[in-house]
Amino acid sequence: MKKMISIAVIVMMVCALMVPVVASAAAVTPGQTMWVNCKNGGALHLRKAASTDSRCIANLPCGTKVSILEDSGNGWAFISAGNRTGYVMTKFLVNHKPGKYEITEKSEGFTSVTPYMATAISVKGHDRSVGLRPIPNKDSRSIRMLGVGDEVEVIAQGRLWSKVVDQVTGKTGYVATSYLQRI
């Protein structure tokens, strides 16, 4: 029994020591340059104080470059973006400028279109094309890779993605619009 209690105490001490290490991994550093990436295609609220209850000063679109002025703790940072300063949630900041297909669009933000057929086109001259994805984000796992010339039916469009029905599998998914050619 004493051995089990000793092991439990050791495990709890090791876990307690790991908490500051894990917490500091997500920390931001004053002077650091970061970019907004909302993961939903929307904008990040710049707030007057470090609270979701605080008044929104401005909306920062995905891809906005920000400078960290202070790590406010609890997942908030005091930042400057252009001529504005305020607080943002750090979980929406990344270390690199997000590419246009890294931003996820809201699936409910797609506009239905009169369905039309399109084919997948090559990516940078290769024989393979682009992923048919379950959500409109390049980091989501592909349902399948579309080959050059594979046909899809476009049923809705967002800013950067098209909602399509794959003619081979019958599955509905999303394809980056710039990799489709209307037929």
Q: Care to describe what's here?
A:
By secondary structure, the chain is mainly beta. It folds into two domains: 70 residues, Roll (SH3 type barrels), CATH 2.30.30; 76 residues, Roll (SH3 type barrels). The N and C termini lie far apart (74 Å). About 6% of the residues have low confidence.
Number of structural units classed as domains: 2
**Secondary-structure element order, as H and E?**
HEEEEEEEEEEEEEE
Q: What is the name of the CATH architecture of the largest domain?
A: Roll
Strand residues, percent: 35-45%
From the 3D structure, determine the CATH topology of the largest domain.
SH3 type barrels
Shape verdict: elongated
Identify low-pLDDT runs. Answer: 16-26
Name of the CATH first level of the largest domain? Mainly Beta
Structural category: mainly beta
User: What is the helix tally?
Assistant: 1
- Counting copies of identical and different chains, the oligomeric state is single chain
Mean pLDDT: 81
Rg over CA atoms, rounded to whole Å, is 22 Å
Q: How are strands sequenced across the largest beta sheet? A: 6-5-4-1-7
Q: Helicity, in percent?
A: 10-25%
Work out the number of β strands: 14
Described by strand count, sense and barrel closure, the largest sheet is: 5 strands, antiparallel
Distance between the termini: 74 Å
